[in-house]
Design brief:
Elements: E1 24-40, E2 50-66, E3 71-80, E4 83-84, E5 90-91, E6 93-105, E7 110-123, E8 130-143, E9 148-157, E10 167-181
Antiparallel strand pairs: 1-2, 1-10, 2-3, 3-6, 4-5, 6-7, 7-8, 8-9, 9-10
Length: 183
């Protein structure tokens, strides 16, 4: 009698990866430096037009929502130390803003994203005290775990044109901190 045919080996079941979470809320905080620039006209007592800037410590706190793999949205507040300028003006600056983000993953743990939005920028002096300005920037996150990432931000609050002899120009922020993802 012929020998029975060998039974084929069972096919292993496919290993399913956990579904990647791409929609989630998050909070972030960064500590860095804020550079404020003011334009001085001839009537500022300094003899001619020139720009003056000052850089001081600042803090940015915010919350966001990653809508999908590409798009997100953020709301944030920024607070800076008092700035002192050559013309004798002293001012603290703060901002409240909303922005959209568009990003891509550079690796499994690192994400680069661009930012664009609108900000309400407030100076504590009487020169153009509060303005609405466009804001643009770049951000980078590097995940240490599913929930915790190192975050860095570069933000620029663009100048608003003015006929004033003395007017606020660009405001820039560079900071590093953490982001907590609610995944």
């Amino acid at each position: 009698a012929p020998a029975p045919a060998p039974m084929p080996a069972p096919v292993p079941a496919p290993v399913l990866k956990a579904a990647e979470v791409v929609t989630f809320p998050y909070v972030f905080g960064t500590l860095g430096a804020q550079r404020d620039l003011i334009g001085n006209g001839p009537d500022a007592g300094l003899g001619g037009l020139h720009n003056d800037h000052d850089t001081k410590p600042a803090l940015q706190l915010g919350a966001g929502y990653q809508i999908n793999k590409l798009w997100g949205a953020e709301a944030f507040a920024q607070f800076g130390s008092g700035h002192g300028f050559e013309n004798g003006l002293e001012s603290k600056v703060s901002a409240l803003a909303l922005r959209g983000t568009l990003g891509t993953d550079l690796s499994e743990a690192t994400r680069l994203f661009g930012k664009a939005g609108i900000a309400r920028v407030k100076h504590t002096d009487a020169v153009e005290g509060t303005q609405t300005r466009p804001t643009v920037g770049l951000g980078l996150t590097h995940a240490f775990s599913k929930n915790l990432s190192l975050r860095s931000d570069l933000d620029m609050f663009l100048k608003k044109s003015s006929d004033e002899a003395r007017s606020w120009k660009e405001l820039m922020y560079l900071g590093v901190g953490v982001q907590y993802n609610f995944k």
